[in-house]
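Appendix C reproduces, verbatim, an entry submitted by the partner laboratory led by Prof. M.T., so that reviewers can inspect both the input and the predicted structure.
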Amino acid sequence: MALLTESLQIPGVLTVELQPFADTRGRFIETFRKEWFPQRSWENIQSNRSESRSGVLRGLHYHFNQVDYWYVLNGCIRAGLVDLRRSSPTYCCTQTIDLDAADNRGLFIPCGVAHGFLALTDVTLVYIVDNYYDGGDEHGLAWDDPDIAVAWRPTVPPLISERDAANPRFRSIAPELLPE
């Protein structure tokens, strides 16, 4: 049985405490059930695996029509989140959540919440989305935007893709290009 806890900083963001079952053979962990997230249909489910070296920063990305569910298989990340939903009481609030493979936790990220991660170690991340990839629903926000100020706290300059380095600052995104 998993224990779901809603974020106090950004409504709709959920951490999922997973229950491992171990014996002399090893361990088993149920990492995802669509029933845990009844607010979404999970009809067009897609699962992805991302491998990153320590110091890589991916994001920030956001979607209008897709939620993400993250589970770290190996290593440790710092997830960075920004509530971009204009109608949300926590509009523009940020949060960071450290996820370590040893913690047995998942992270549910709703539509309209920008998300990315800093690999604190070499990491393998599995993420499940509730819609097939659609490049038209892939939007970005500058990871280092001073107006947003996600508390990444990298110890060295992070490694970033050209695409993520080109993400716009919050001030330059027209309001109609932000989620309701």
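The CA atoms of residues 5 and 15 lie 5 Å apart. Additional entries are available on request from the coordinating office.
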